[in-house]
Design brief:
One of its GO terms (biological process) is 'de novo' IMP biosynthetic process. By secondary structure, the protein is α/β, with parallel strands linked by helices. It is 35% helix and 24% strand. The strands form 2 sheets. It has a 7-stranded mixed β-sheet. It has a two-stranded antiparallel ribbon with strand order 6-7. The structure holds glycinamide ribonucleotide. Glycinamide ribonucleotide (GAR) binds next to helix 1, strand 5 and helix 6.
């Protein structure tokens, strides 16, 4: 069994995908025991409350203090897996090292298998830069690549550079804007995040 904490900072459509998968028995043995947002007005918190899930706003003004509070919460709720689903804060190495292979992150770009490296070879053989950090869809558009995607990877102290669990490519279309591309990436992510939890449960 896997007790999940889902961490969000925004709309929480990927949290919703997990809730829907749980409610339709696509994640047998899993359960969301806690939803945390660093933003008080994140719509993800509303989604959690609608489904009667414990949902908390945890301010993130001083990272060390907030991380301590988060660790206490994760222990209290006996969390097995921490899912970063649109979580926009970077954790300290000290935090991450307390949960080895127990934090996974959804990132809206393609990341290599081992997580490291500056380039990624896509299925059509093209070599594309790895877009890490914020605004990955915008970075892909600005770089003029034809393919981007999304990756779920283990979180390690190096940002967006941990080993991948699963990923999917998304083609960039003519006329794409950042919003349109980000939206198409999200459509793919809604099944990718579920697949990632299934994979994690098989390997855990
Ligand atoms: C997702 O596209 C996710 O990949 C991205 O934020 C979006 C959250 O959407 N995450 C990052 O950029 C992390 N650096 P959601 O709130 O609707 O699930």
């Amino acid at each position: 069994p896997a007790r999940l904490a889902v961490l969000v900072s925004g709309s929480g459509s990927n949290l919703q995908a997990l809730i829907d998968a749980l409610e339709s028995q696509q994640l047998p043995g899993a359960q969301i025991v806690l939803v945390v947002s660093n933003k008080a007005d994140a719509y993800g918190l509303q989604r959690a409350l609608k489904h009667r899930l414990p949902a908390l706003y945890l301010p993130w003004k001083q990272r060390a203090q907030s991380e301590q509070q988060l660790v206490a919460l994760l222990r209290l709720f006996e969390v097995d897996l921490i899912v970063l689903a649109g979580w926009m804060r970077i954790f300290s190495a000290e935090f991450i090292e307390q949960f080895p292979r127990r934090i996974i992150n959804l990132h809206p770009a393609l990341i290599p298998d081992d997580g490291s490296g500056a380039t990624f070879t896509s299925s059509d053989g093209s070599i594309i830069p790895v877009f890490r950090g914020m605004h990955a869809a915008r970075q892909a558009l600005e770089a003029g690549v034809k393919i981007t995607g999304s990756t779920v990877h283990y979180v390690t102290p190096e940002v967006d550079a941990g080993p991948m669990l699963c990923r999917q490519e998304v083609p960039i279309l003519t006329g794409d804007t950042e919003d349109k591309l980000q939206e198409r990436i999200k459509q793919v992510e809604h099944s990718l995040i579920v697949e990632a939890v299934q994979l994690w449960m098989r390997t855990a």
